[in-house]
UniProtKB/TrEMBL annotation:
It comes from Neurospora crassa (strain ATCC 24698 / 74-OR23-1A / CBS 708.71 / DSM 1257 / FGSC 987). Residues 122-247 form the Fe2OG dioxygenase domain. InterPro entries: AlkB-like, AlkB-like_sf, ALKBH6, Oxoglu/Fe-dep_dioxygenase_dom. This is AlkB protein. Belongs to the alkB family. GO terms for cellular component: nucleus.
Length: 264
């Protein structure tokens, strides 16, 4: 069987998830099967010390853990997390190209790419989470360390991400307001209100159920909705790569004095 190829939309606008607060985007075939396999191998072969084991889930952080919400400048991201994902991410304009050349500066920037407004103009940090069936992540917000653009590439298996609205008193409705199905090789981008006003989480289930055009926000953007015609998704091991721009990067070298601060 020929392996699948990636396929990008002309602009993110074409991949907007309708019915969600602006802006969330879903691209089903962001990477090819071959690229997916290469990345999964790298994740699995990372040195054991790279993994942090939580009760049910394990994770890796690249290039390093944050210290007080700060990324210590030093190591760049490894090549296998840079290519092809970051350049592909930055190659998709947010808005369709307009024939009107008199567009203002703001509009031009938005046309560039999804990280055009972030402090470093690109993601500088990747969190890798591994979810065997029956594992998930509690509803949470991603907090103040990052620019509010989250790009998640899914590998290995499909599962549903739930979005919750926090009530005035901080309590949480038990039912999600929306569910997004993330297929392997897909890219999900969430920004703005979805970052600041809503929580996201993954239920620890062996299967996602009750899925349909009515209950899954990105149903019309799925690669293979026919796989879920009975409303069910049996989960396998799903690995996610979460790309973000950490706002604060500490120039450790400059604190150590001029000897350490020379750049070739
Ligand atoms: O795996 C995912 O899709 C979500 C991960 C997540 O929410 C996080 O790491 O903050
Ligand atoms: Fe998160």
């Amino acid at each position: 069987m020929a392996s699948s190829q990636f396929s990008l939309p002309p602009s993110l606008e074409a991949s907007r998830i309708a019915g969600l607060p602006p802006s969330a985007y879903y691209i089903a075939d962001f990477i090819s099967e071959e690229e997916e396999q290469k990345i999964l191998e790298k994740v699995e072969r990372a040195p054991k010390a790279r993994w942090r084991q939580l009760t049910h889930r394990r994770l890796q952080t690249w290039p390093s853990d944050l210290v007080k919400n700060t990324l210590l400048d030093g190591q760049p991201l490894p090549a296998w997390l840079e290519e092809p994902i970051i350049s592909r991410l930055l190659s998709v304009p947010v808005l369709p190209s307009s024939s009107d050349s008199s567009g203002d500066e703001k509009e031009k920037q938005q046309q560039q790419h999804i990280f055009a407004d972030s402090p470093h103009g690109r993601p500088n940090h990747v969190l890798i989470n591994e979810y065997p069936p029956n594992t998930g992540i509690m509803p949470h917000k991603d907090g103040a360390a990052y620019h509010p653009v989250v790009c998640t590439v899914s590998l290995g298996s499909s599962l549903c991400l739930n979005l919750y609205k926090a009530k005035e008193d901080g309590a949480l409705d038990s039912e999600p307001v929306w569910r997004i199905l993330q297929e392997p090789r897909s890219l999900l981008i969430t920004t703005a209100d979805l970052y600041t006003e809503y929580l996201h989480g993954i239920d620890p289930l062996s299967a996602d159920v009750n899925m349909s055009e009515r209950t899954i926000a990105n149903w019309s953007l799925l690669r293979e909705p026919s796989l879920y015609q009975n409303g069910e998704n049996q989960r396998g091991v799903r690995v996610s790569l979460t790309y973000r721009d950490v706002l604060k990067v500490s120039k450790l070298g400059s604190k150590l004095g001029p000897m350490f601060n020379r750049r070739p």
